[in-house]
């Protein structure tokens, strides 16, 4: 059980839980959002391109994101598996990931979906804005990111549900409680 995805609306705790799963299970966690933010900070050409979209709460174009993920998944540290956090977010990204995995005859073991209602998510992200000042954590942009999740990423979730590899986890509650639920869900998926 080593190749996993974690999907959820903005603020559902993907990044938070991905870090914990990575520590507990020893798989490398790869967050497309973190890679973009590191590039924005470093003012690289990728960061300059991505910033325009991120500040508006839009998805970075698939062509840019897909290439970045392909390059990251060709690095040595993913040989024993990975946990992708925040990718795929569109059905085109699902198809692209399918192609990457098909080349090495790999497949996904489990897809975790973290759920939470929109008002809880807005409150969490406004809380984070006070602490970190992330440029995409203001209410207008947060609501736009949530709309995009409903319009585009829920179709991604449906695809993995059809394939029978989706596991839903309630993301509401204390962070430790959610971690316990996530680890149990992974164990249960392993047992299938
Ligand atoms: P991300 O970095 O993925 O941003 P996010 O959706 O807000 O998730 P994040 O991981 O930061 O938050 P989390 O839910 O862990 O993406 C940022 C941007 O990058 C996107 O808008 C897009 O522009 C671009 N992008 C990334 N991937 C892309 C892709 N595949 N295609 C195109 N564009 C892409 O947690 C949020 C907060 O909630 C934290 O402050 C945490 O402390 C708190 N929290 C977590 N769990 C909690 C709990 N149980 N209770 C209370 N608070 C909790």
UniProtKB/TrEMBL annotation:
Molecular function terms from GO: AMP kinase activity; ATP binding
Region (NMP): 31-60
A Pfam family that the UniProt record links to this protein: ADK
Superkingdom of origin organism: Bacteria
Binding site for ATP: 11-16, 128, 173
Localisation per UniProt entry: Cytoplasm
CDD domains linked to this entry: ADK
InterPro entries in alphabetical order: Adenyl_kin_sub, Adenylat/UMP-CMP_kin, Adenylat_kinase_CS, P-loop_NTPase
GO biological process: AMP salvage
Pathway(s) served: Purine metabolism; AMP biosynthesis via salvage pathway; AMP from ADP: step 1/1
EC number per UniProt: 2.7.4.3
Record-listed AMP binding positions: 32, 37, 58-60, 86-89, 93, 134, 145
UniProt function note: Catalyzes the reversible transfer of the terminal phosphate group between ATP and AMP. Plays an important role in cellular energy homeostasis and in adenine nucleotide metabolism.
The name this protein goes by in its record: Adenylate kinase
Native organism: Arthrobacter terricola
Biological classification of the source: Bacteria, Bacillati, Actinomycetota, Actinomycetes, Micrococcales
Gene, per the UniProt record: adk
